[in-house]
Amino acid sequence: MWIYEKKLEYPVKINTCNPALAEMILEQFGGADGELAAGIRYLTQRFVMPTKEAIAILTDIGTEELAHWEIIATIVWKLVKDAPVEKIKGTPFEAHFAAHGRSPFPHDAAGYAWTAAFIQSKDDPIANLYEDMAAEQKARATYEYLIQLSDDPGVTDALSFLREREVVHFQRFGEALMGVEEFRETKKYH
Amino acid sequence: MQELDYEELSREELKLQIQELEFAVIELNLFLDTHPTNQKALMDYNMFSIELNKTKNVYQKKYGPLTNFGYALSSYPWKWVESPWPWEE
Ligand SMILES: [Fe+2]
User: Looking at beta carbons, which residues of chain B come within 8 Å of A172?
Assistant: First the structure.
């Protein structure tokens, strides 16, 4: 069961129109290392985890990623909602507009649609948790690229918050991995 | 923690207060998932959760429910559809 809360996890303050930046930020809406991929990856991997701690951390980080997905969509929406077509033409957002208008859609910055092929889940908790730690590092790197591309202080502020969260998630997955490895050792020798 | 009179805060200030407290709670929650026997973190989690609930109650009475599915009551008419959605603010 999931409960929706009618507010963002972190405030998004944007009053500018910037379709080109919106297109780049879609990388984290529907890209391989984006928030949707993260959420679906973690929530899918929970079932094969051998420790209570690992199941809990995948559930809770997976849930937080969905909140981040909403923050990303809100940023994108605010950057394009009032954009006249003349300000969209000739920008990287033009191809998105041709297919979706101003609606967000989960594809990456280059327009490649989100696919479950971006993620993996195996009946092997060690393999899963290593993937998750790599995913957090890749998401952190992506946020750093996006922060370099951003010329909007409101966007940069929200992206910096999201970047920080990836660092924390990486840490927690590392601890969950240690717990799973210890569990395997005790099973082997006792 | 400083004593704040939540009734005095504007909608924006109150929402920010909720976001700050909820951030602390999320962070402690994730920490406790991998450190379930850490008593200090657990005490902080419970303390911030009580404070978060207080702010949410004040907010929801004034500005409508933050959650549905039975987690908050609604006055007439159904308030869930009335207040702005996060991307409309
Ligand atoms: Fe993350």
Answer: 30-31, 33-34
